[in-house]
Write a structure and sequence with these properties.
The complex is a heterodimer of chains A (262) and B (325). With 262 residues, chain A is mainly alpha-helical. Chain A is built from eleven helices and no strands. Chain B contains eleven helices and 14 strands. In chain B, 42% of the residues are buried. The chains are: A mainly alpha (262), B alpha/beta (325). The complex binds adenosine-5'-triphosphate (ATP) and magnesium ion (MG). The site of magnesium ion has 3 residues of chain B, from helix 1.
Chain lengths: 262, 325
């Protein structure tokens, strides 16, 4: 029990230590405004392009994708900031469990991701009249949680890369926009050329979004649940790869291969 | 016989660095071969000029770097294999302002590191109160670190290093950037820790600091230990020499070079002052050197000339002086 408390405590301090989001203004701008603008922009565009069509498709896709803001940028910046503050060596030379530290880095971003999606859905409903009357809300909630978790998985992998490279935010940007293209956010994955469909299957998000669409349409849970299972598996695979890479790079750093790390 | 706190044997560290994609790599030999023993309970000082390898030794001992060859045993454990247990038993402070979360208060920084060192919350709170008193940060501990002066950050670093009550504390240039009073306070604090049983391994280039508080010192130069012992012993390694010291006006590189080449001169140090340069010359026979000075200085003016016994600083300067060409 104390172990769990220590973990939660550590997560909170880490989060506050590393982000100005922990101040009300910073939080509002990154957690409220960015998701709102993204949803407004793409839903508006989609409705316009389809000649006044149904906003639902665009609203669900973009609301779900907003999790990637936290999952990717939040987690990546955790490691990057640590390096910038010069606290990374202190962390690496401490007896703290690597796995707990590593998971702790993403815990708050999962929660944050969920909050962002809820806000995005609320905006879609207020401004565009997204209809959730037939929706299976628990299933929709499960889809949101699954995507928040799985995007953190890829964030952890990128975060590990940022141990070696200062330029990982560029890659993170790339991945974020890649999601826009391949994850079925604004158009179905089946519209993509074959190669990109393969990429889509290898990344988190697309299955979670598909499950959310099923949930909003009120489809039976038996169709959405396997998708969510796969979504979580993909996320876990990225997280595991991230952890392994972290350990490998830690070894490198100790051999003096990474000057920037210390 | 208790185990040594630090035991280095033929320790070697070579850094490899890439110049960027496809532009090859270079090597820096930071430690050539270092042998060193620090018994438990000692306040030990590692001295050396910039780039001598002091920080590298500390990083290896604190498990941040792996040696290229040789062994380093800390509290009886080989650092190459060591993990959590060792890390829990040692503390370290690297000089400078980095390594703190500037957006958190000093107190929250300590709480966070308390978590990393797995201190139960109530023990952490008590320990932090103690340490805040000890390092004299009462009243400011709830301010954000970004509002701290450099000295306050340094003291917070020390508190962080001591949080988990380590048996062995590494301090890499702990007084860097502190004013004279702050530096003296910190030295007293460190001395106090050692008197209460903590083994302290510190690095510095301030001779006075080493002389004032260390039980024993070693001088590292170009990756090797070139002298070791009690400060007095190291100082007396130059006892056969005397020191001639004077203020000079109008001295230049050519004249310094000529001084270096006078017979018997072992080391020449020139420190620039506002109007004059202070010149220190070490040689076995100061009296005869004084006689040779006039012709050698060639018109430059020497004032305030005196002959004295070498200090630890003189001994150090001679030890790390470039060999005469
Ligand atoms: N990460 C690194 N990569 C490459 N070379 C390094 C690295 N760290 C240190 N060095 C080199 O190793 C040598 C020893 O450096 P070190 O930092 O141990 O010296 P130091 O005695 O602590 O010096 P100072 O008094 O300036 O702090 C130097 O030549 C330095 O340039
Ligand atoms: Mg150094």
């Amino acid at each position: 029990m104390t172990g769990l408390r220590l973990f939660a405590h550590g997560c909170l301090y880490q989060y506050r230590a590393l982000f100005n989001w922990a101040t009300p203004l910073g939080y509002a701008s990154s957690k409220l405004l960015v998701p709102v603008f993204q949803v407004v922009f793409f839903v508006q565009l989609g409705v316009f392009a389809t000649g006044g069509g149904d906003p639902t498709y665009f609203a669900i896709g973009n609301a779900m994708q907003v999790t990637a803001l936290n999952g990717i940028f939040g987690v990546v910046m955790t490691v990057g900031n640590e390096r910038q503050f010069g606290t990374l060596p202190l962390l690496l030379a401490s007896p703290a469990s690597r796995l707990a530290t590593f998971l702790g880095r993403s815990a708050f971003h999962v929660v944050d991701g969920i909050i962002s999606v809820v806000i995005a859905f609320a905006v879609a409903q207020l401004l565009f009249g997204l209809r959730l009357a037939h929706a299976d809300l628990p299933l929709l909630a499960a889809s949101v949680v699954a995507v928040a978790l799985s995007t953190c998985g890829i964030g952890l992998l990128l975060g590990s890369c940022s141990l070696v490279s200062r330029d990982i935010l560029l890659v993170a940007n790339l991945v974020y926009f890649l999601f826009l293209v391949v994850a079925g956010v604004n158009f179905p994955v089946t519209r993509l050329p074959g190669a990109l469909q393969v990429v889509s299957r290898g990344l988190p998000m697309s299955r979670g979004i598909a499950a959310a669409r099923l949930a909003v349409a009120g489809a039976p849970a038996s169709r959405a649940l396997p998708l969510l299972g796969q979504e979580l598996l993909v996320g876990a695979a990225y997280a595991a790869a991230g952890y392994l890479l972290f350990r490998v790079l830690e070894g490198w750093a100790r051999r003096g291969g990474l000057q920037e790390a210390f | 016989m208790s185990v040594a706190a630090v035991e280095l044997r033929a320790l070697r560290k070579v850094y490899r660095h890439r110049h960027g994609w496809g532009r090859g790599s270079a090597e820096t030999v930071a430690l050539e071969s270092v042998d060193l023993d620090v018994p438990p309970g000692e306040l030990f000082g590692l001295l050396g000029p910039n780039g001598a390898g002091k920080t590298t030794v500390v990083k290896i001992c604190t498990t941040l770097l792996l040696p290229t060859a040789g062994t380093a045993r800390v509290l009886g454990e080989d650092v190459s294999q060591a993990g959590r247990q060792l890390r829990q038993r040692i503390g370290f402070v690297f000089g400078g302002e980095r390594g703190l979360y500037w957006r958190l208060s000093g107190y929250d920084n300590l709480r966070y590191f308390g978590d990393l060192y797995r201190l139960p919350p109530d023990r952490a709170r008590r320990r932090i109160d103690e340490l805040v008193q000890l390092v004299g940060l009462e009243g400011r501990i709830h301010d954000r670190v970004e509002r701290y002066s450099r000295g306050m950050k340094q003291r917070l670093h020390l508190a962080r290093g001591l949080l988990h009550d380590p048996e062995l504390l590494f301090l890499d240039e702990p007084t860097i950037g502190l004013d004279p009073v702050g530096a003296r306070d910190l030295r007293q604090l460190v001395r106090g820790l050692a008197d209460r049983g903590t083994t302290v391994f510190l690095t510095t280039h301030a001779m006075l600091e080493a002389e004032a508080i260390c039980d024993r010192i070693a001088v590292v130069h170009r990756g090797r230990i070139i002298a070791a012992g009690a400060p007095d012993v190291v100082r007396r390694q130059g006892a056969d020499l005397g020191v001639v010291e004077f203020e000079a006006v109008g001295i230049d590189d050519r004249l310094v070079q000529r001084l270096r080449q006078l017979p018997g001169v072992e080391a020449v140090q020139v420190v620039a002052g506002e109007l004059t340069h202070r010149v220190t010359v070490q040689c076995p026979d100061p009296a005869s050197l004084v006689l040779q000075l006039g012709p050698c200085l060639d018109g430059a003016l020497a004032v305030g000339l005196r002959v004295r016994e070498p200090t630890l600083e003189d001994a150090y300067i001679r030890l790390v002086a470039e060999p005469a060409p």
